[in-house]
Amino acid sequence: xxIKFLQTILNNLISSSxxxxxxxxxxxxxxxxxxxxxxxxLVEHIDKLNILTKDSEIVIFGSWYGSILIPAFYNKVKKIxxxxxxxxVISRAKYNLFKDFDxxxxxxxxxxxxxxxxxxxxxxNTSCEHMKPMKEWGxxxxxxxxxxxxxxxxxxxxQSNNMYDIHDSINCVSNLEEFKEQLPDNAKVLIEDKIExxxxxxxTLIGKI
Length: 209
Fold this sequence. Notes:
By secondary structure, the protein is α/β, with parallel strands linked by helices. The protein has eight helices and seven strands; from the N terminus they run αααβαβαβαβαβαββ. The protein has helices spanning about 5-15, 20-30, 35-50, 70-75, 85-95, 115-120, 150, 175-180; strands at about 55-60, 80-85, 105, 120-125, 155-160, 190-195, 200-209. Strands 3-2-1-4-5-7-6 form a seven-stranded mixed sheet. The relative contact order is 0.14. Mean pLDDT is about 90; it is low at about 15-20.
């Protein structure tokens, strides 16, 4: 994690008045202790695998603001692409939060195939609970023709959770085994982990396609 980058972002963005505005609360939540705990653990696992180089490209599905992951990987890779369906989130990340960063931000459905996927070395999805299972990643509307073989070889880092009561969580899992059943057929798991926070358990699966 590049702490200097992160501290600069926080200093520029967070003021006492922000906590009273709903959109600002959402942004602040992306820097919450629970978010730090789960995402930094993910970064730690990826670093230990030593799978990234200065020529690597990362695609982040359901990126939200990219608040923690972008500073964590920015100086380690060649390119980061963030995709989220919420235009307000993408706009704020692109024009405010990371306006000085060379990151590609895309508003849209991650299930739409994009050129950026072809060269991706690592796919990150810390929002698996908010979308269809990754084994169904493919063309709309049925999502029944997975695209993973079109993108291999590559690595993946996925997170889901058992927090069924959180708004917009449509695909939670109860345990790691259930999460593994949502992986694409050609996935090989290299690391699995469980991370407890004050609302439940986050599950992490990292591997290769």
